[in-house]
Design a protein that fits this description.
The protein is an alpha/beta fold. It contains 10 helices and 13 strands. Strands 1, 2, 3, 4, 5, 9, 10 and 13 form an 8-stranded mixed beta sheet that branches. The N and C termini lie far apart (58 Å).
């Protein structure tokens, strides 16, 4: 099941029905989602997207609304994108807005997280550009991760070309759920982001997509998908195709790199 909130519109999907409506419909959809997820032990994750600007207060309001909606929907985990606190229009503005980890902005987000604390699974964390390096995702999987997350702010050009295929590749090679919150739309006159916050299952199938600028652009209230994380599917995928057991040891691959070295 997937519930999608985009701006002040929402979509509720399951295998048989599709509902669309305004925000007033949201309470009904949340009730349906709670009824469904309460019957099993699978955790629910909220994968969010938003359009950050240099206005920290507005950014915080959007994040707070998304977190609260996620909690109402039964989510035990909420994933916000890279740079959810702010995106400056230039280097000087970015540096002027910067704070320490004990500053007011991070303290407010920390308090928000504590107020809405839920269940957390074994999650491996990368950020944006890390998505391009399979070595990190494989190392996180070997450390026990069942979920990989890549909070990101891909550009429109790189997002259109590489975003989905990289996320699906990381899911296939690790047999993990990959949850990627994303920035979307125009942040300022100099910068725009691709959007399409995605959830990918351990088989590499996209199970949720927040869409691009046309549904979550500048000035919107953000977007969100609620995704059921089926941990049995993780175990089943790894059991039926045990690629980590079949992988040769690291020494074999190093020997190939050195095979042409005759000095």
């Amino acid at each position: 099941m997937t519930v999608t909130l985009t701006g002040w519109r929402c979509t509720f999907l399951n295998q048989r029905r599709l509902y669309c409506g305004t925000f007033s419909t949201w309470k009904f959809l949340l009730m349906q989602n709670r009824m469904s997820t309460s019957s099993n032990m699978n955790p629910v994750a909220a994968v969010c997207q938003m359009t950050s600007t240099a206005d920290k207060e507005t950014n915080f309001s959007v994040c707070k609304r998304l977190v609260e909606a996620a909690r109402e929907g039964g989510a035990g985990m909420v994933f916000l994108p890279e740079a959810f606190d702010y995106i400056g229009s230039c280097r000087d503005e970015t540096l002027a807005l910067a704070e320490s980890l004990t500053g007011d902005t991070i303290s407010r987000y920390t308090q928000l997280a504590r107020l809405h604390r839920g269940s957390v699974q074994e999650v491996g964390l990368g950020i944006c550009y890390d998505l391009r390096f399979p070595e990190l995702s494989l190392a996180l999987q070997r450390q026990g991760a069942d979920i990989l997350t890549y909070p990101s702010a891909f550009t429109v050009a790189t997002g259109a070309a590489h975003w989905e295929v990289l996320l699906r590749a990381r899911a296939v090679e690790t047999q993990c759920y990959v949850l990627a919150a994303a920035q979307v739309g125009r942040h300022n006159t100099a910068r725009s982001s691709w959007g399409h916050a995605l959830a990918v299952d351990p088989w590499g199938a996209v199970v949720a997509d927040c869409g691009g600028e046309e549904v979550g652009g500048s000035g919107s209230g953000g977007g969100m998908v609620l995704v059921e994380v089926d941990l049995e599917k993780v175990r089943e995928t790894r059991r039926n195709m045990p690629v980590q057991q079949h992988c040769r040891d690291a020494g074999f691959y190093r020997s190939l790199e050195n095979a042409g070295d005759t000095t």
